[in-house]
Structure prediction request, 192 residues.
Amino acid sequence: MNRTGTKWEYSVSGPTSTSAGSERYAFLWKPSSVRKIGKAWLDQNYSDVIIREPYLMTFSYRNKQFTVVSFHAVPKKKQPETEIKYLRFLPAKYPTQTLLFLGDFNCPQSHTVFNPLRKVGYQPVLANQKTTLKMKCSGFECLASEYDNIWLPKTFKIHSAGIIDFYKSFDSMEAARKISDHVPVTVMFTPN
Prediction:
């Protein structure tokens, strides 16, 4: 990506505790836009009840700091809400940091498991937006489930949010799914 003329930096986590080395997280950012503060870390607070513990990194934008919490819940059939419910405790674990939660929750934002986050001032950037790819499109409907999202404090101003429907650039869903079975979620925001 640096060959495009813009400098990029990245951080890749070590393997999560119970993934036997196969599951990792990554952050990718432009240092001309945001500045990394310290090192990223896998949060061990709930590693005994969260199979793939969250990966956190703190950034600074215009002298405002925020910590991104990347999370990948267990699949729907394994009841992701049993892991998601622990996210509500992270703001108290990191009281001096402004947390942003993002990832594959394998659960729609309308689920009651997110109510504790809502009660402490978080909002999802997407509502009723499917983010996983079907195996095959049904007419023009190619998305299956509302699983991926970004949760921001209500003090943040959201300028725009959506998905990148990259699969439309492929000849088939099979080819697109070789890249990912999820579409990327985007948000433009500024911290207040």
Q: What stands out?
A: The radius of gyration is 17 Å. The longest helix spans residues 115-119. The chain has a mean pLDDT of 94. The chain is about 10% helix and 35% strand.
